[in-house]
Amino acid sequence: MNQQKQLFSEQPYWSEIGGWSPVCGDFYSRGISVEHHQFTVDHTTRWSDSFHPGSFELCIQLEGVCRETSAKQTQQFTSPSLILYETTTAQHFHFERTRGPHHFVTLEIPRDHFKNSNPNQPISLPLTPTALELAELSKTAVPSGLELKVLAKAYQLLAETQEQLSSKQGLFCENWKTEHESRITRVKEYLKERMDQPLQLEGLAKAVGCSPHYLSRTFSQTEGQTISQFLKQLRLNTAAQLLGQGNLNVTEVALEVGYNSLSHFSRAFSDRFDCCPCSYRLRATNATK
User: Fold this and answer.
1) What pTM value is reported for the model?
2) Is residue 90 within 8 Å of residue 51, measured between CB atoms?
């Protein structure tokens, strides 16, 4: 391994937090390490600063809450659970440990161990009996004579996890597609309910659970237009419907769909329908007589 990786040590991070106990193995010399963690923090701490570069980690989370934040979204992982993450993508996300007690065991291995089934983002799975057995074995210092037993249990957990990932690989894309479609639907519903209000991209992104940049990019890719363009089209189509009903005058319709300037509304409406709002309302009213 290169010198940069050999020089990395997570000890400086844990010396400030406390509660870190290497159980057995060694990431660099043996390609696997098992570590036990139990501590309490009175503030949020950036846990990903302790991750080995170029590693794939499994966290047997017994107590505590951690958050993963990326440009796409923020995920929260509660206990108990098994969390999987690849640290080579740490530049795209970071993990935080929230205020309070934490108890977990980590299993660290080189990333190529899961080269055929790496998830593209951190995921959470239910704790298995094997994971709980490994956590129990890791609570205390392991005598040299029992190290093989702990490592055997660790490799068993790795094999089971890889099998789960392989069997669910096809579901990841499908789940992402379903989640994405649901988010786009929620965006449209949000805009329909608030079309009389100015567009606040940050508030919209927060409401649907992702970052403004990610929302803008994926919405445009899916819909073939920006969020602002969709909202403008939504407002003008709704305005046409209201004008056609004849219950509101042009000014009232403009305000109803989010235009505070009558001249801006008239110009936008004419560009879309080749007809000014007054004429459109008059034609629709006469057509119903």
Assistant:
1) 0.55
2) yes
